[in-house]
């Protein structure tokens, strides 16, 4: 519209000027108008035309600068700085205060796509509101943009993989179902239908065949993958997000696939993603993945950055998280890539920015009018509570010990996770306004009617308990520590300031900065606080450090250390007096590798089981909150503990110190309710034998304590079901680095696990009737209608998760069964509900070995419907496809 107006205005002035004889003024005005208004600035044109026009005006240097995650501005054309890297795994992450929902592995236990959509609609509301605030301030830094690098939809094929906590479990169908819901919630599908702009952009990661190990991911080669496993297990969720979710970004993985790095893998990126599935969006590299192409310690498949960058772009990787793409100019000079090949990627990047409205005035984009009051709001806290409640899985309830009574009961709350708020946040998280720990949730629930005893009893993996006293640290009148950062190692020049008000864990692994505005390398920091303890004794400062550190107390250096190979543990103890103030200062500087600084202050006490037993001796019941923590399992960590390696696990057993305490508690004869917090399966065989009830609480987010208490006392009837298999022990697991699916997950495990995929108890009890089908024979391409009557035969209203599985009878080497549909249904006490399913042609596909692809095959099939994948509990029906 504007460029049409400028053209009309130009011609009008030309007519007038010819009459008046002032041609020179006409030329000046015409040039001025056209220098200000180009087609790409006209938001009435299609995004495609605008991107084409803008691309044509860029120099090759400008194009390359736009192909890195920290894209520099092109001021002459009005292109702002933009940082593509933002995170929203289960809430807006690393950008200050935000609602923290349960970790995705927990949310997957809901089996509830409507809930996942609601959660991520709330997340994208907060993301948009935050971006609007940052934009008004003229700030376009990391974790402030509109491109959210989530969800993680890799298959959780092995419980030892530390990063499995970010996924939606082990099943391709469930991962697809919930992953698509997350993408739609983020991108605003169905919201503000009149808007031509996307709300935010989601990113399906990590493509593909990427499920651990973490410790060697930069050099690991996933090879000899069976084509069936590739198409039935590792690729379906990515295909669903592309075709059904219209996801706008895909992130390629660190590892190699069949010898080629995933971010330069023609088979994955070009033949499958682009050509077979028709993906038109952006492929972004995982952070530093292109550098892995040429590092000797990594893949070392290319000679230098230029060769690696050219190969990545030609294979379809448009955007690099890193800095190797700076060498694309050299690659052009060397003849390894052409400008026209670069143009393909740059156009995709420009198109995405136009779709988000990032190139237009904020007032033109409806999403910018989202009220910033939604950030960490009570409304979103309520959704976080609902998600936590629905995620919790009741694994065992012997003699119906649960729910507990609130009145007149003495409860001993024990275990290393009972009062740990940070554990509940998981990883890739924001900072909530408030977190309700499990201990606090129990106290809040019973009020003054019952007596609660708290005794931690043991640590997660070590034979001591640590009582944090960080709450007694203040700096400049505020709780916590003040932090100053310099983007050099000598603390010169301007600083970046931040207030840390929780025990903190900072690490640059995965290219994560310590704070906004701080660079990844060659930086320094200074942390200050005054510690005023509430008790006298020997205080302990606990740190994990990778870098150079001077720890000062009242101005005196008490610890000075510099790491060599990986991080080291620092534990400094000193005597303190109640009420006296102690100045704590930490001077930190980056040294080598991944910078890391974890800090807490408190009182360390060696575990004394007998003392703990005495303290809880008159309790009526013991609620033990154990498991592990995101400080132990997660993405490529720098610290190892017994049973853990770089964030992965070397076995799936509960740490021995917890087992020892539980064994001592069992001998007291008291009823034990064991609550497990983890992002992966724990071998709970021993625990299940000694415990009256077992609950899987995951990492339940900011409202997790309230949700757990609601389950314990019957204020919420549990409805969560396991999205992963809980194995009996580590001996049931194949080799971690073997990517064959045989022997893994409920689909290919040929022995009995402890708790099956889909298992979850309720305070209600449900009975399934016979499956009814509209026909028992169908033709290829036809759909099948089914129904089953489910009765709640208890006196308690409840929600059942009705699961439908499919098995081809003569497929002897195939899966035991595969989830094909799921329905959440609320059933009142004593009532029955008919549950309907429609299996479409796409739901009936299975592996065709002759065609070497997924296909609808003739033959006999078994349909199974029930409340879990356990064969004995499923109703079955045969039908045939001809």
TrEMBL record:
SMART domains for this protein: Fn3_like, PA14
Record carries keyword Hydrolase: yes
Residues of the PA14 domain: 476-617
Keyword Signal found: yes
Keywords assigned by UniProt, alphabetized: Hydrolase, Signal
An MF annotation (GO) of this entry: hydrolase activity
Family: Belongs to the glycosyl hydrolase 3 family.
PANTHER family: BETA-D-XYLOSIDASE 5-RELATED, SUGAR HYDROLASE-RELATED
Protein's name according to its UniProt entry: Glycoside hydrolase family 3 C-terminal domain-containing protein
Originating organism: Chryseobacterium formosus
């Amino acid at each position: 519209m504007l460029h049409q107006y400028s053209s009309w205005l130009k011609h009008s002035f030309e007519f007038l000027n010819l009459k008046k004889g002032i041609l020179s003024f006409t030329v000046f005005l015409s040039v001025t108008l056209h220098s200000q208004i180009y087609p790409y600035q006209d938001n009435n044109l299609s995004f495609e035309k605008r991107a084409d026009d803008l691309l044509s005006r860029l120099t090759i240097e400008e194009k390359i600068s736009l192909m890195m995650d920290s894209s520099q501005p092109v001021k002459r054309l009005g292109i702002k700085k933009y940082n593509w890297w933002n995170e929203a795994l289960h809430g807006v992450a690393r950008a200050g205060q935000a609602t923290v929902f349960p970790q995705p592995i927990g949310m997957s236990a809901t089996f509830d796509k409507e809930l996942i959509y609601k959660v991520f609609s709330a997340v994208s509301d907060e993301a948009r509101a935050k971006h609007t605030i940052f934009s008004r301030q003229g700030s376009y830094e990391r974790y402030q943009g509109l491109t959210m690098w989530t969800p993680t939809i890799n298959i959780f094929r092995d419980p030892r993989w530390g990063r499995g906590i970010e996924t939606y479990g082990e099943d391709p169908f469930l991962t697809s179902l919930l992953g698509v819901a997350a993408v739609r919630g983020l991108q605003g599908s169905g919201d503000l239908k009149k808007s031509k702009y996307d709300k935010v952009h989601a990113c399906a990661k990590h493509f593909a065949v990427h499920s651990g190990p973490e410790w060697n991911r930069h050099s690991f080669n996933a090879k000899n993958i069976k084509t069936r496993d590739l198409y039935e297990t590792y690729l379906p969720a990515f295909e669903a997000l592309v075709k059904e979710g219209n996801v706008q970004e895909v992130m390629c993985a660190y590892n190699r696939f069949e010898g080629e790095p995933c971010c330069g893998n023609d088979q994955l990126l070009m033949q499958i993603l682009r050509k077979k599935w028709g993906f038109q969006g952006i492929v972004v590299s995982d952070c530093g993945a292109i550098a892995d192409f040429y590092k000797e310690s990594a893949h070392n498949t290319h000679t230098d950055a230029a060769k690696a960058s050219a190969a990545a772009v030609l294979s379809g990787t448009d955007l690099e998280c890193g800095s190797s793409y700076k060498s694309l100019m050299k690659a052009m000079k060397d003849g390894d890539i052409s400008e026209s090949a670069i143009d393909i990627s740059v156009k995709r990047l420009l198109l995405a920015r136009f779709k988000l409205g990032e190139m237009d005035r904020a007032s033109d984009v409806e999403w910018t009018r989202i009220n910033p009051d939604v950030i960490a709001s009570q409304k979103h806290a309520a959704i976080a509570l609902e998600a936590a409640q629905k995620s919790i899985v009741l694994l065992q309830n012997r003699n119906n010990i649960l729910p507990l009574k609130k009145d007149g009961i003495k409860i001993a709350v024990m275990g290393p996770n009972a009062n740990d708020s940070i554990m509940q946040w998981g990883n890739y998280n924001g900072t909530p306004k408030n977190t309700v720990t499990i201990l606090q949730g129990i106290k809040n629930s019973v009020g003054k009617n019952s007596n609660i005893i708290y005794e931690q009893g043991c640590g997660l993996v070590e034979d001591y308990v640590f009582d944090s006293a960080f709450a007694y640290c203040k700096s400049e009148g505020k709780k916590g520590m003040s932090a100053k950062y310099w983007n050099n190692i000598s603390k010169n020049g301007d600083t970046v300031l931040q207030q840390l008000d929780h025990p903190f864990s900072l690490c640059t692994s995965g290219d994560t900065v310590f704070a906004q505005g701080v660079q990844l390398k060659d930086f320094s920091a200074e942390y200050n606080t005054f510690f005023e303890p509430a008790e006298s004794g020997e205080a302990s400062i606990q740190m994990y450090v990778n870098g150079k550190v001077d720890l000062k107390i009242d101005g005196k250096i008490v610890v000075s250390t510099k790491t060599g190979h990986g991080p080291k543990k620092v534990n400094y103890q000193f005597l303190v007096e109640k009420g006296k103030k102690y100045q704590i200062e930490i001077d930190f500087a980056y040294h080598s590798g991944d910078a890391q600084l974890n800090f807490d202050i408190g009182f360390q006490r060696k575990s004394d089981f007998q003392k703990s037993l005495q303290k809880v001796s008159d309790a009526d019941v013991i609620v033990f909150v154990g498991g592990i923590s995101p400080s132990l399992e997660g993405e490529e960590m720098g610290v190892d503990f017994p049973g853990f390696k770089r964030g992965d696990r070397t076995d799936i057993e509960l740490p021995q110190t917890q087992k020892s305490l539980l064994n001592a508690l069992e001998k007291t004869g008291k009823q034990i309710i064991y609550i497990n917090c983890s992002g992966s399966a724990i071998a709970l065989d021993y625990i299940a034998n000694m415990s009256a009830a077992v609950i899987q609480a995951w990492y339940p987010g900011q409202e997790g304590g309230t949700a757990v208490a609601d389950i314990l006392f019957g204020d919420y009837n549990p409805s969560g079901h396991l999205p992963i298999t809980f194995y009996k022990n580590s001996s049931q697991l194949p080799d971690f680095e073997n990517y064959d699916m045989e022997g893994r997950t409920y689909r290919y495990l040929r022995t009995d696990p402890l708790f099956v995929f889909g298992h979850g108890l309720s305070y209600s009890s449900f009975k399934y009737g016979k499956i009814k089908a509209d026909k028992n024979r169908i033709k290829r391409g036809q759909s099948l209608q089914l129904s089953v009557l489910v009765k709640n035969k208890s006196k308690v209203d409840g929600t059942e998760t009705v699961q439908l599985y499919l098995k081809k009878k003569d497929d002897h080497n195939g899966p035991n069964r595969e989830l094909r549909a799921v329905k959440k249904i609320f059933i009142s006490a004593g009532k029955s509900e008919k549950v309907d399913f429609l299996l479409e042609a796409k739901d009936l596909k299975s592996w065709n070995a002759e065609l070497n692809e997924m296909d609808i095959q003739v033959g006999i099939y078994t349909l199974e419907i029930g409340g879990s994948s356990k064969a004995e509990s499923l109703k079955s029906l045969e039908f045939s496809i001809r």
